[in-house]
Amino acid sequence: MADRRKPMRPVAPLPTADLPVVVIAGRPNVGKSTLFNRLVGRRQALVADTPGVTRDRKEGLAVIRGRKVRLIDTAGLEEAAPETLFGRMRTSSEEAVAQAALILFCIDARAGVTPADQHFARWVRRQNLPVLLVANKAEGRSGAASVMESYALGLGEPVPVSAEHGEGLSDLMFEIVDHLPEEPPEEEPEFEPEIIPEVQPEEGEEYVLPERPPGPVRIAIVGRPNAGKSTLMNCLLGEERMITGPEPGLTRDSISALLHDNGEEFEIVDTAGLRRKARIDESLEKMSTSASIEALKMAEVVVLVLDATLGVHEQDLQIARLIEREGRACVLALNKWDAVEDRNETRKAILDRLSISLTQMRGIPVVTFSALTGAGVGRLLPVVRETCTVWNARISTGALNRWLEGMLERHAPPLVDGRRLKLRYMTQAKSRPPTFILFGTRAELLPDDYKRYLVNGLRETFDLPGVPVRLQLRGTKNPYADQKRR
C-alpha cells in the first residue's frame, strides 16, 4: 500500500509581506470600515450604524491605481484604560499604525472636527509617518462646508469623500499613490504558479495524493463564544493579533492571517462564536454569524474549538454537523486542557458523546492543549496537515472494487420490494472531500443502513478519519423498460 501520508508540497510564499501597508485610523463611527470595503472592492468588513463594530484590525489586498497595497482597517481610537476592552482595541490599532507606510486619518465631515479628532490628530503627528487626511461623509452642502474646519488638525489638505456613496474615491486613490514610497523595480518571479490537475492512481497503486494547487492551506477556527478561538490564533501566530479577554463574543468579524510553518503557508481565519439560531436577535450578530459560516465554507480544514472544562455541548454538535454538510475536513481542539481535573474521564466522556451523536465523522482527530499557556498547541498544525492529506486522498478503482467484493461477501445487500439489489462497480469521482460513486441494478434504492455499512467500511479500510465521505448511487437503466410498458 502506497504511503499517502507524505508531507504536502511547500507552496510559494505570497508577496503580501513586501507590499506597502496603508492603515485607516480615526475615532469610532467615522466610516473607516465602509472606506475599507470601497478600497478593497468588496464587502469584506462588517459595517453597521453602531459605533465600535470593528474591534480587531482587518487586512485586505487592494489594488489602487495599479499599485498593490496591504490595507488595514482598525478599531476606533478612544481614550480608555489599557486593561479595558476599548483600551485593548486602541493598543491593537496603535500596533497597526506602527507598521504603516501611509496613514489614512479619517474624520466625519458632517460632525465637524471634534475634541477626539484633535487629540488623536496630535498623536498621529507624533508618529512621524506619512498621513493623508480623509474627510468622510462629505456629501451635500453641510459636509462640504465642514471640510474646511479640518485644516485646523494640522494634517495637510483634506480629501473629501463619501465612502457610502462612492464619491471622491478617484481623487483619494490618486493621493494615496502619490503619498506611497516609490515602488521597487520588479524582479523575475522565482515561482510560476500552475494549477495541477487531480490524477487517478496508476494500475497497481491503491493511493495517489494529488499535489495541492499553489496557495496557503486554508484553516477556519470555529466554535461557541468564549471557547478560546482568538487566544488560539494569537498563540499560533506568536503575537497579540486578536483582542482577547474574559468577555464572551469579543470577536465580531472573521479575521484572517498568514502563518509560515516548516516550509508551508497557512491562512488562518478566526471567526465569531456561533450560538443557537434562536438566541441570535441582533442584526450585527446575524452578520457576524454569516461571516463565520462563510469562512467555514471557504476553509479546507476546520478546527472546532471546545472548552474542555464544559464538555461537548449540543451547539458544538450542530457546528460539527454543519462542517460535515459543507464537506470540510475537521479537527476537534479541546482547549483549556490544563484546567481539567480528571483528564482520562473527560476525554472518554467527550469521545463517547461524539461516537453516539456524530457517527458521520467517525474517527475525528482530537488535540488537547491550553491556548493561554501554549502547552500542546504545537501538536495542532501537524494534525491539520494530516487531516488535509486525508481530505485530498484518492483511491484506485481496482482497490475499491476488490474492497467492494469483500464487503458484499461479508454482508449481501438486502431485498427491496422482494428483489435483491445487484451492486457491480465503484469508483472515486473526486477528492476534497472523498466522493465515491456506486453503480448497480436499482442501486438508488439502497437502504440508508447499508450505505452506512459501506461508508464505515471505507473509513476503516482506507483510513479516512475526520473527513466527510460521500457515497453516490447510480442505478443502471433497463433498455427494455419502455417496451414492456407498451
Automatic annotation (TrEMBL):
Q: Which InterPro entries match?
A: G_ENGA, GTP-bd, GTPase_Der, KH_dom-like, KH_dom-like_a/b, P-loop_NTPase, Small_GTP-bd
Is Hydrolase tagged as a keyword? yes
What CDD domains would the database entry show? EngA1 (cd01894), EngA2 (cd01895)
Keyword annotations from UniProtKB, A to Z: GTP-binding, Hydrolase, Nucleotide-binding, Repeat, Ribosome biogenesis
Residues binding GTP 1: 26-33, 73-77, 136-139
Q: Which GO terms describe its molecular function?
A: hydrolase activity
Keyword Chaperone assigned to the entry: answer is no
Q: Name one Pfam family in it.
A: KH_dom-like
- Domain named EngA-type G is located at 20-184, 217-392
Q: Where does GTP 2 bind?
A: 223-230, 270-274, 335-338
Q: Which PANTHER family match?
A: GTPASE DER
Family of the protein in this entry: Belongs to the TRAFAC class TrmE-Era-EngA-EngB-Septin-like GTPase superfamily. EngA (Der) GTPase family.
Q: What does this protein do?
A: GTPase that plays an essential role in the late steps of ribosome biogenesis.
The entry describes its oligomerization and partners as: Associates with the 50S ribosomal subunit.
Name-wise, this protein is GTPase Der
Q: What is the lineage of its organism?
A: Bacteria, Pseudomonadati, Pseudomonadota, Alphaproteobacteria, Acetobacterales
